[in-house]
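During the second year of the project, the team shifted from modelling isolated chains to modelling whole assemblies. The rationale, set out in the original proposal, was that interfaces cannot be judged from single-chain predictions alone. As a representative example for this report, we include one of the complexes processed in the last quarter. Its constituent sequences, exactly as entered into the pipeline, are reproduced here:
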Amino acid sequence: MTTFEFDADTAVVPVDAGAGRWRATITPRFNVGPNPNGGYILATMLRPLFETIGKPDPLTVSAHFLRPTTVGEADIDVDVFRTGRRHAHAEVRLVQETERVRAIAAFGDLAAAEGRTLVRGAPPELPPPDECIVRRPVIDIGQPAIMDRFETRFAPSTPWILGEPSIDTAVTGWIRFADGRPADVASLPLFADAFPPAVFALGRAGWVPTIELTVHVRARPAPGWLRARFETRFLVDGYLEEDGELWDEDGRLVAESRQLAMLLQP
Amino acid sequence: MTTFEFDADTAVVPVDAGAGRWRATITPRFNVGPNPNGGYILATMLRPLFETIGKPDPLTVSAHFLRPTTVGEADIDVDVFRTGRRHAHAEVRLVQETERVRAIAAFGDLAAAEGRTLVRGAPPELPPPDECIVRRPVIDIGQPAIMDRFETRFAPSTPWILGEPSIDTAVTGWIRFADGRPADVASLPLFADAFPPAVFALGRAGWVPTIELTVHVRARPAPGWLRARFETRFLVDGYLEEDGELWDEDGRLVAESRQLAMLLQP
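Output from the structure prediction step:
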């Protein structure tokens, strides 16, 4: 039986079930420079919930990144503080000596959802993956390890990926796991943070620390490529939001994301 | 000295400073039907932080609404769990017999922010307030008390405000406090939830319970009207997101919001 990278790298073991304490080993395989990617950390923090919260889908997850995380062991403290008929809410803290990330999540069951549907948005228009840009972004902080975890194809309309600065701080493209693992609701919070930041269009590629990241999982993805669109519309005095959409091969929106981050001067 | 409605209705008193416990009296003046508006509750929960957290601006605030809140006394439990140089993070719980709302917030100082600025969005185009629609929305659950707290002028391009259903689930307009209180960073989380839900365009106006609401405060507003734009792009099996933008009279984006909510069948 194959163990995919994502499942191995986000694995958690209970160390004190009564106290809600789990342990993870943060690997360097999702690093951006010396630090693990925030989406990877968040996906790892959610792993215990899939086993304990009693609902299958992370409908909305918000994480506050307090301090950089590091490669190595981490305690994950879980508190399911509200269980209702439709939704269950939990808080999760990632501790490496001190608390580094705090998240709150609401889980539900998308398969049991009933109600009206009206879709006014559409997936980004993209050429087929083999007509998109394979070349990796030119950035100042070395080749991030995280990029080896995915196959990523950037739209030809995003020339900054090839190193030509632009004020069009947006990026669209295809993405899937490099080892063939299908996307699912557990990995969507990682996919929501797996593209190079759209603000890199400006050509000042460096560390863009996330302050807060919220991901809404809207549907369970079909197997295959995801279409992604990320955009920063408001960069003000170094603070920026980045909005993301992920769509599956059936043309369904599977996740929306928004983060508040900072563009540190290089 | 005048006490404005917002300041009176969100007032908090410390009851156990060492434990971080405050008390508020939730008034009926921001009700929608029998329950207080979520933005009002969130603004009330943030009030203790302005006195204790040591930073002036709520950069990002996420609230999970666990159970309906009610008019009357509420305990507000505050834990400032991380104080850094730039940002301080806190968790706040609103308790009425049991926990009803949990929020996490990151505060900072927008006046001290330094870095690049690039604004790619623009405020909604609106006729002057006196050429907009004053008439209140036609909704099924009675005239919400919250509407008396604001002066609201809806764009003529949103005919559903007058009772004509539309699949254009968006609304733009002007808003300010009815009693002349200027908007500020403390009241922006309320303004971000103060318009009728954009999904009311569909003509099935009822209760739209918020599961999670996140507000980013991006600038301190100038005095005067706010321009607002709210939109729901994805209503799927009854779950919807609503994205909002608030702009001040100087044409600056002052807040972005996104909530995950449900459209309950009437």
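Residues 38-52 of chain B form the longest helix (15 residues). Residues 15 and 22 of chain B are 5 Å apart (CA to CA).
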